[in-house]
Prior knowledge:
Layout: H1 10-13, E1 20-21, E2 28-29, H2 37-59, H3 64-80, H4 89-101, H5 121-127, H6 133-153
Helix pairs in contact: 2-3, 2-5, 3-4, 3-6, 4-6
Amino acid sequence: MSAPHSRPSPAASAGGPEPAxxxxxGAVLAPAPGSTGADGAAAACRRLFEETTRGAREEAGSDAxxxxxxxxxxxxxxxxxxxxxxxxxxxxxxxxxVRRLGDxxxxxxxxxxxxxxxxxxxxxxxxxxxxGLETLVETWARTVAEDxxxxxxx
Length: 154
């Protein structure tokens, strides 16, 4: 097996910031303008999430389905991107998530975050042109709950 290539990424070759993994979900994104590394990737992930759900947010005031989709998306995002200043808060978020989904894959929250995620906000953004936001958010929320459940069992 050959060694990986050590060529600079296209972003670095063009003078742009190196892509980095979001510390919440692991999605590899170009950092937000003016930032680098994990903090920049986290900001880029948040911005991508907000842009992806913007249309539903605009409709939420007059459309109950859009409002429910936004609430579920916000809950899934919070479960996948817990506040590092309040790590215990994720347990309340997970309780809300499993109640909203109508099932409880594991009533005992994992003591630590999942090592990997099946789906991230980047996956939702990538598939939005072929699958509706409501379906994508429902799938994402279920996979986030499953990932936490799997982490609790390991």
